[in-house]
Amino acid sequence: MNLETTLKSSLNLLKSKGADHSSIFCSHQAFDELVFENDSFTLLRSVDEYSADFSVIKDRKLGSYALNQLDEAQLESAGLKVLEIASSGKEDEAYAFAPNREHKTFSHGPNSADLDAMKNCIRDFVSRTKEEYPLIGLRSVTIKFNSTQVHFGNSEGATSEAKKSFYMMSALFNAREGKISSSMNYDFFAFTDFNIDFLSNEKFGKVFKDTSLHLKAEKLGKTVTGDAILSPQCLQTFLGFVLSHLGTSSLVAGTSRLKDKIGEKVGSELLNLESRPQDTLFANPNFLTSDGLETENISIFEKGRLKTYLVDLYGKNKLNLESASNFASRLYMPAGEKSLDEMVKEIDCGILIGRFSGGYPNANGDFSGIAKNSFYIEKGEIKQPLSETMISGNLFDLLKEIQEVSSDVYQNGTTHLPYVATKNITIS
After folding, report:
1. What is the DSSP string of 301-356?
2. 198 closest CA partner among 168, 177, 175
3. Whether residues 128 and 254 fall in one domain
4. What domain range is 30 assigned to?
């Protein structure tokens, strides 16, 4: 199927049906997936999928509709459906699509899957895990080669095409010794070549060690308020909560705790965070926003100061801003100077949080949930792995109380984040 031809004919279709403005993404997604379970390969499959996302503005009303069959009849039906959706929408002059610009072409990653390399990688990973981490039980190991081709165009004359491909390796596992077992754990890494040690500390090595230690996990048995070291995985979760306050929805609704804070100091001097969607550091880049704008590197927090909102074109127009500021993807926080071990030694009473499991924080940023894969710290030492431990605090207070950022970083092909030490977490 020719995506460029489909795109042009679909734009003409929407115009003929009466759309004032239209925007379309036509996509081809393919993947090759190899799965290892219960000591054997259990699945090898290849999938091809075509899809399109239609958006129209008619009479200042917005409509959107997605379809996964791109034959002539389905495209015709989708054109009628998206206009019907728009007609029942709410009128708003802030709706807009990307303006006309020079055509851009983006390309990233290998051309095709190396199935032999995928198979050998899994075999080596499983064999070494049994040898180096005998308490770890691998429930499943999967490598998927993802390939996506996108053609974008709109009625304003803006066009782009992007092709990217990468591998994704994931593992589901727990630890077991006799009749005792830990809870299940999961991690993944995106990459473009196989020259990687997947059992290094920066990859699966540390999480395998920590999971093995959790065979002896205990409840804390008391309630304390102390310091916290957020693992990169936990930090990513908390940053996601914070960044939602910079998005169009919360800013327009007036519920954002960070509205009208551009240029103000809202965090510690050690709070530095960027979005680097096209950085070659990441195996899975993002080239276009949902509006069809080209992504760009942006600084979100710099020495604790808020530098930008994360709004789309609608948010830009609704809030009377000078420009849209993309969305936060491929988060990058620079490494600090102290190792994780050095950070632990500086904590008198606190917790190293592996993962956070809980509901969405309230509008003020107050959160409460379970600390998974976590450890209790006392007098500069990790005393015990924790089970069923509740934590609570405030997201925005945590930002202000950042004390240290580690030299150890977690780079999984989609994020680059260190450990962060902060204060005032209630542990129970």
Report:
1. EETTEE---B--HHHHHHTT-SS------SEE----SB-HHHHHHT-SEEEEESEE
2. 168
3. no
4. 3-215
